[in-house]
Amino acid sequence: MPKKAQVKESPAVIADRQRRLKWWREARFGMFIHYGLYAQMGRGEWVMNRERIPVDEYDKLADTFAPKRGCADEWAAAAKAANMKYVVLTTKHHEGFCLWDTQQTDFNSVKRGPGRDIVAEYVAACRKAGLRVGLYYSLMDWRHADGAKAYNNEKARARLVDFTHNCVRELMTNYGKIDVLWYDVMWPLKTADRWRASELNAMARKLQPDILINNRTGLPEDFCTPEGHIKPEEGKAWESCMTFNGSWGYVPMAPEEWLSPKKVLEMLRQCANGGGNLLLNIGPEGDGAVPALAIDRMTRVGKWLRQYGEAVYGQFDPIKELEGWAGIGWWSRRGNLCYYWITAVWPGQSFSIGGLLTKVKSVKLMPTDKPLPFTQTKDRLLIQGLPKTCPDKNCDVGMLKIEFAGEPKQRLGEGTVYYKAY
User: Are the C-beta atoms of residues 81 and 295 closer than 8 Å to each other?
Assistant: First the structure.
């Protein structure tokens, strides 16, 4: 079969996408929240599937589900503490339980368990905190009667697709302005046509003209979503979604299983350098509480960002001509101004960067921008006047701001001989 020709987007469509993406590109850092019935079990969001729990048995979790009052405010507060700019909540994960007052199924948080619209509480908390609002919706549904039959039964497919469209319509209608619509898992229909995805997304945009939609309905839409890894998407908006401790849904983990603040910042550096965003997940506990370890580490990251955020937020240029190394640190670049992230052991009061081919105009120590003395020879930039210990006490990540006279370039190479061999 010949491949279907891609529809070329009009300049007006492209311009409107850039308009809608403006805040998102500047945001850089967001929080993903995986919360559902599975949180009560503490074995991850796929527990129903992986343990082959029958629907009738899993259904009982809906009546014991008891998010505490104010948990959404706690989520928003954690995001603000981390200096995140937006949040995405799982309104319905693969288990099929809906966290809003849907008319499509009684398997929801208003008819069962808490008797409350958790999505409404979440949206209100985000708005109060000044955060952009994202809603996640899983196309895959293990509980829906047609969730599996829809693959090869046309009537079942029609029912599942109608259910899906109606759910998304409610989410786009009931809560005022929504900033992000985050779909997940196309199983079992697998193609955009079978989900009627063009129609679905057109409906969402009619209801929410400023909405950003991800690429998980099989259509490219507004942004790509690499999961579990950081990989820039050439010429496209992209967002890496990453877990904090190896699980999306709540699992009690030892402290060493959680990302350190330094590791979170390293992921942010990689995303910023590639022009993408980081969507870092937390899995609230059964009662909706944010794990204490997550709060502590996100708060430390947030304190760092409030001091050094200019090295993360905004647009950056490629660093193909610069070579960091694990012994000291790594680069970010904005034109001829570069940020040197000292992420390894603090080097003490002086250290050098080798292989720079471009003249250096100034070196400053952030966050005070104190000028540092330096000497530059053919193959070595020697920087002096540093403090004895890292000035950052939150995440142990120091930062230098280095201005070059032209496009910064560096060549270290492999196996360079510096000393005469005898």
Answer: yes
> Which residues, at least 6 apart from 90, have a Cβ–Cβ distance to it below 8 Å?
33, 34, 35, 36, 45, 99, 136, 138
pLDDT at 26 over 70: yes
pLDDT one-digit tens code per residue, 224-279:
999 999 999 888 999 999 999 999 999 999 999 999 999 999 999 999 999 999 99
Q: Distance between CA 188 and CA 185 in Å, rounded?
A: 9
What are the φ/ψ torsions at residue 391 (nearest 5 degrees)? -70, -20
Cβ 165 vs Cβ 183: under 8 Å: no
Token pair recorded at residue 209: 């003209």
Which helix (H) or strand (E) is 363 found in, with range?
strand 360-365
Q: Which two tokens stand for residue 409?
A: 């370039």
Does 419 score more than 90 pLDDT? no
Pairwise CA distance, residues 253 & 247, whole Å: 9
Q: Quick one: DSSP state of residue 202?
A: H
pLDDT of residue 397: 97
Short-list 141, 131, 130, CA closest to 168: 141
Tokens of 52: 């082959």
Q: pTM of this prediction?
A: 0.94
Task: Decide: helix, strand or coil at residue 379.
Answer: coil
Name the nearest CA neighbour of 100 among 88, 85, 87, 115. Answer: 115
- 3-state SS class at 251: coil
153 vs 188: CA distance, rounded Å: 11
Mean pLDDT of 210-218: 98
